[in-house]
Design goal:
Elements (H helix, E strand, L loop, with lengths): L4 H4 L2 E4 L15 H6 L1 H7 L3 E4 L3 E2 L11 E5 L6 H13 L3 E6 L9 H6 L12 E2 L33 E4 L4 E4 L14 H16 L4 E4 L23 H4 L5 H14 L3 E5 L5 H8 L8 E3 L20 H14 L6 E2 L9 H5 L5 H14 L3 E5 L20 H10 L3 H11 L2 H4 L30 H5 L5 H14 L1 H5 L1 E6 L4 E8 L2 E8 L15 E5 L13 E6 L1
Parallel strand pairs: 1-2, 1-13, 2-5, 5-9, 9-10, 10-11, 12-13
Antiparallel strand pairs: 3-4, 6-8, 7-8, 14-15, 15-16, 16-18, 17-18
Helix pairs in contact: 6-8, 12-17
Bound molecules: 1-O-alpha-D-glucopyranosyl-D-fructose.
The site of 1-O-alpha-D-glucopyranosyl-D-fructose has 13 residues, from loops.
Length: about 550
């Protein structure tokens, strides 16, 4: 297994809008992040992934880019950004930017120019005539009376993946929001543009890219209809599409020249596909984020709840641990698109214990851990009671398309909405959790009096300090990074696995339940490196998580 800095690193994900507001306008910003670098450094992470801070109308919180080479005034300016980079670098922390390359904003200059049927930009996006029939059951989105969209593809956020543009008199494809038109990667000029954007940031010394929705960039010729029975009609045509590997290989030539790391975000990806994307000799991506563990509580329609099963979780994690071979994955429990891990995979009744248990898994599996802001203090989901508390375009559109009232879907909204992850970082017990002196763009979780960074920093038993300890344990023990993986007990509610590298052996023992249970494996000759209780016990206590080591 080839060794690389990014395999040994722990990443911290900062969602700038919700991290720290330095100006009092209620929106987090780059100077705010700079104020909190000591905190990030204290956690002991090696790199920061910054969600998009580019100039954007913010229809999807920055995933709709208007100008890739400018910082959005909401977040600051290029000088602020350079200061952030320098502050991080001077502490040995790398900076990875978000590359949103599947689509731009409809306010991007390329799209504006593409509205013209002639000239260089005309094929930068997917423009098509509508179909002149009414004989379909999909909704026409504001097109001419007698037209329906060019094909039956559905968008990730619900509703058709096409909108009609009055000016050009044609439809354009958008796999996400109508304000996020898809770039036409078949056009070599588009690929050159994206490489230009990469070079622009690499010249500014960024250390890599997290590539947004990167496995949907290749659409098949002819844009054929999908099967109406598919969960998201059309998906199979553009997920891991025909040219995606070639395109990524092209991009990797740019990142490799600068020694930058690349992480591909890929919903709908199995381990065989991931192997191909990340096999080092193919030069496509360094690692991927897959969604298979995020899918274990996924069901259709989305407003139904589904309890996840520990056996499914173990199966998924194990499959990836063993199946990637020479490839690599990013390990995450949550991010800005997912509910809070404690509320989902842990237990709010054993909040601190289960937060530490999830951290233990993340720091002892093979792959690069990505900690999303707030996880290190065990932040929980937000109790949404009304639709007007929601901000996320995805959930708002899904509710609209479902035709249901907020009350009818409230339980699922609370369980699933991305806004759970986007409520402000809880710095202290004061008003607005110390996030802003103004009115926050989204409500602060009322539990900030109890759950906040300030109260945890000096408490040796806190979730924060357990993360710190685990991060150091990972760094000090290459077996946790490069070792082989074997599950050694499949007995629910316990999950036990062993990592092995040369003479070193580490065993992680986890109790995924709120009752005491037997410790099922023999650990004679092992040292207990750490657990998430203040003492030792023969039985495993609720959500107890232990790491044993022999070397
Ligand atoms: O997400 C891509 C993606 O797969 C999402 O559809 C995700 O599955 C869904 O939001 C989960 O609820 C990326 C970004 O991370 C997300 O924030 C953006 O909205 C999206 O791309 C479009 O850029």
């Amino acid at each position: 297994m080839g060794r690389n800095w990014w395999k040994e690193a722990v990443f911290y994900q900062v969602y700038p809008r919700s991290f720290k507001d330095s100006r009092g306008d209620g929106v987090g910003d780059i100077p705010g992040i700079i104020q909190k670098i000591d905190y990030i450094e204290k956690l002991g992470v090696d790199a920061v992934w910054l969600n998009p801070v580019y100039n954007s109308p913010q229809a999807d919180n920055g995933y709709d880019v208007r100008n890739y080479r400018k910082i959005d005034p909401e977040f600051g300016d290029m000088e602020d950004w350079a200061e952030l980079r320098d502050e991080l670098h001077s502490r040995g922390i790398k900076l990875v930017m978000d590359l949103v390359a599947n689509h731009t904003s409809d306010e991007h200059r390329w799209f504006q120019k593409s509205r013209n049927r002639d000239g260089k930009y005309t094929d930068y996006y997917f423009w098509r005539e509508g179909r002149n029939t009414k004989n379909t059951d999909y909704e026409s989105s504001r097109g001419p009376e007698d037209e329906v969209p060019p094909n039956n593809w559905e968008s990730f956020f619900g509703g058709p993946a096409w909108s009609y543009d009055q000016e050009r008199g044609e439809w354009y494809l958008h796999l996400f929001d109508p304000k996020q038109p898809d770039l036409n990667w078949r056009n070599p000029d588009v690929r050159e543009e994206i490489k230009g954007v990469m070079r622009f940031w690499l010249e500014k010394d960024v250390d890599g890219f997290r590539m947004d929705a990167i496995n949907v960039i290749s659409k098949p010729e002819g844009l054929p209809d999908g099967d109406a029975e598919e969960e998201q009609t059309g998906l199979k045509h553009y997920m891991n599409g025909p040219e995606v590997h070639e395109y990524l290989h092209e991009l990797s030539k740019v990142s490799k020249r600068y020694g930058a790391v690349t992480v591909g975000e890929m919903s709908t990806l199995n381990v065989e596909q991931a192997r191909k994307y990340t096999r080092p000799d193919r030069d496509e991506l360094d690692m991927v984020f897959h969604f298979e563990h995020m899918d274990i509580d996924h069901t259709e329609p989305w407003w139904k709840l589904k309890e996840w099963e520990l056996s499914d979780l173990k199966k998924v994690l194990g499959r990836w641990q063993n199946g990637l071979e020479k490839g690599w994955e990013g390990l995450y429990w949550g991010n800005h698109d997912q509910p809070r891990p404690v509320s989902r995979f842990g237990s709010e009744d054993y909040r601190a214990e289960s937060a530490k248990l999830l951290a233990t898994i993340q720091m002892t599996l093979k792959g690069t851990p990505f900690v999303y802001q707030g996880e290190e203090i065990g932040m929980t989901n937000f109790p949404f009671e009304r639709q007007d508390q929601l901000r996320d375009v995805e959930m708002l559109r899904k509710i609209e398309v479902s035709g249901k009232s907020f009350e009818e879907v409230a339980e699922a909204v609370n369980y699933r909405t991305r806004d759970n992850a986007r409520t402000p970082m809880q710095w202290n017990r004061e008003e607005n959790a110390g996030f802003t002196p103004g009115t926050p763009w989204i409500e602060v979780n009322p539990n900030h009096a109890e759950i906040n960074a300030e109260s945890q920093l000096n408490d040796p038993g806190s979730v924060f300090n357990h993360y710190r300890e685990l991060i150091q344990i990972r760094k000090n023990n290459p077996v946790l990074i490069y070792g082989s993986y074997n599950e050694i007990s499949t007995e629910n509610p316990v999950y036990v696995y062993r990592r092995r590298l040369e003479d070193a052996e580490a065993v992680t023992v986890l109790n995924f339940s709120s009752s005491e249970t037997r410790q099922p494996v023999d650990v004679e000759g092992f040292e207990l490196l750490t657990n998430n209780y203040s003492d030792e016990n023969s039985k495993l206590r609720p959500y107890e998580a232990r790491i044993y080591l022999k070397d």
